[in-house]
Amino acid sequence: MAAEPKALMQSQQSWTDDLPLCQMCGVGTAPNCVYSPDGKGTQSHPMEDRHLRLRGEEGCFLYAVFNGYDGNRVADFAAQCLTAELLLGQLNSSHTDNDVRRILVQAFDAVEKSYFSTIDEALARKAHLSNYVMPHNESQKVQERLKELEQEVSGGATAVVALILSNKLYIANVGTNRVLLCKSSSDGQNQVLQIGRPHSTDNDEELQRLAALGVDTARIRQAGQIAGQNSTRRLGDYRLKINYNEIDLLSAATAKPIIAEPEIPGSHSLDNVTGFLLLMSEGLIHALESAHGPEQVNQEIVAMVAAELAQQSSLEAVAQSVVERVKRLHHDVFVSGRQRAAYCSRHEDMTLLIRTINYPLADAALTPTQGGRIYPVSVPYSNSQSTSKTSVTLSLVMPSQGTLTNGTNTASTLEEGTPTPGSQSPTLTLQSTNTQTQSSSSSSGDGSLFRQRGSQAAQPDETGRVPPYVDFSQFYRLWGADNSDNRGPLGGLGPQ
Length: 496
Fold this sequence. Notes:
Helices cover 29% and strands 22% of the residues. By secondary structure, it is α+β, with helices and mostly antiparallel strands. The longest helix is centred in the first third of the chain and has 34 residues, at 97-130.
């Protein structure tokens, strides 16, 4: 693979387009956007995110999200080269965890070296012209050529890779993208696990690594960025790999401070696991953090995904709906002019990759929107391939101008500054509890919200109507308690 790096850079069509795609995966994307004062958005540069979702041989699956910057060259190259380093016979079911780790590290190293071999001639020409003493009448022409060469060689990317081999999950991360594994435990609760850590300028372990190289980490932490990015591990970016001593913040480094070595946590067995895997670009994470704060981002993303999985019949639609929802939340916070609006003047490219693990999709679709006070409701749904039922606990969000509360809890999945006009429709957002039952109905004697329903509950009665399967009783009770003194248009909500 490393012998033909230039062919990858010059190819107009990726050879990976001919590889089989994983059908248990969906991807949603949205381009970057800068808002004008009136809330209108404008894309400031071409989309730089890239992704992989490929099915190999011997039960091998490869997924990746690349967050490119200063162009998409490195992200495009990495997507093709990494595939060649991992899906052309390098992996098989006999490999141990140590074998897989070694192959992943070697793959990232090959990507980095191969990329720099594609730009070595342009770098040499750039260095020659930079040192050339030119006649005055040639100055402009040389400057234009230097600008062209800079565009050829600049840019980089962060990357997160998920590899499934023999039903074991391996994660390799370089940079600030994120991986979440959501799975149902034996007691029916959703467990959300963030695998790995971001390699950023506010990560203490990364700062310790840089300090050991002689870098002044206090200045790094204060600046928040290194050469325009907050990541401390990246693919490409010759300025930080070749000329790092010319960058003020890194000038004291005794060795290359910004590296492309992936961090690979321990593997995760997927045997008997029901749930889903999320790979997210930094742009998606940062957009939601800007809108709602960083505290509950993982839980919010999982809630949105699980709610869409309960409503959509296509993984592609699920992923795209979640991305569009984050984009809308980000925009609405900006136009609200409230507390967090100053953080939401722009967002970068957003990518969300969802890979389900024995997780059922819904047959029907609902339309989630945005709202205020959250009330718990229960919507059971079933997988047509199984006799078991999956009861998804959702929250019905009603418009409210007051503080948001989650049922009897005080925590909310929505930031207080989010606009909640009274004309909005109810919202369905998933909370972090799934209940697995083996029977066709669930008991309400233990305080659960699920209404008893037989196997024929969805059949029309003699009047042609379908009996209700959403139990709103607790919602009506909570709403009534909140509005006992306010008998407005919604004050008398519920059965009369």
